[in-house]
Amino acid sequence: MIDIYTLYGAQISNYSAKVRSYLIYRNIPFQEVVASNYVYDKLLVPTIGFRMMPVVRTPDGRLLQDSTEIIDSLEMHFPNAPVYPSGARQRLAALLLEAYAHDWVRIPAMYYRWGFPEYNHEYLIREFGRMYEPTLSLESQAALGDSSSAWTRDRLPALGVTKRTIPQFEAWTEKLLGWLNAHFDRYPYLLGTKPCTADFTFMGPLYGHLYRDPYSHALIKRSAPSVVRWVERMNSVPASEGAFLPDDEVPASLLPMLLHAFEEYVPVAYDTVERVAAWIEGHPGEPVPRFLGTHKFTIGGVTEDRNVWTCIQFMIQRPLAAYQSAKDADRAEMDSLLSSIGPNCGLDFRVARPVKREHYKLVAAS
Predict the structure, then answer these.
(1) How high is the pLDDT of residue 3?
(2) 363 DSSP β-pair partners
(3) CA spacing 20 to 30 A to 10: which of 31, 149, 347, 363?
(4) Is the whole model's pTM more than 0.90, yes or no?
């Protein structure tokens, strides 16, 4: 009997796209079940405690939630051909790009989804309605989708998307697609002929939003055809296992993205870590809330407010821990990579209060 995993998610979901492409690449037998209202109310919420996707049900009945933890858990169960590179330089690059894609690239994905209602609105309300109640009539699904998607549609200011920052987000997105397109002109995946963990994380915003939503689909198809081909590869079973580049090489074509991450994402991540530490000190033993007020961020020279998303700490502490716990020889290789990115791209920042996920919640690790 084949052990079948179940992915509860949706085609329009960022992080479902990440996990789905991983399951496809690893050739793990799975079925996908839409995270409908019924599935949430009867299967997921009673165990997890809240509505969130994706969730993976293992053959022995356990529920895994959070895309990064799902992949890490499955990597332990399927240790052959890991998606985390073993080389110090490539592993650090993968972890940095993973955090960048998870926390920062999702912002333009959300903007291009909800910022162009004249192109996307009818499509989106039908997608949301069909997801939540697949047996309703098309008209009823559209009405439900309109009301049930309001919470995410109205979240752009919480991500820092305002009239002041929209031109900067658009300019950065054009650069990002250009960087990725130039890279995928030369390489099938980020670090060679097999995907790494960062490839799957980029699939979230690039497939779940930008590739599928009507307005951004036209944009990406017109300006980044090699990214389109990469998305389609990531949703297909590969002909061969592939390999990471030899000699622990990190292609120079990835450096512009890594530099941008240090310039605009990492300062926000570090400030988030400090705010989470202060909150933990004042609330011992309590789960960390999803948001902690607001803070400043800068994009393209424009400063704006955005919510403090505490999940950012979970992602940024991964490359920090990899760097700070590395042996001397590996640290030297990592320092060489960081120097090639730019002059102020260090990872010496200390996480005073690390966090972990426990019982589907973010909590202090110690």
Answers:
(1) 85
(2) 356
(3) 363
(4) yes
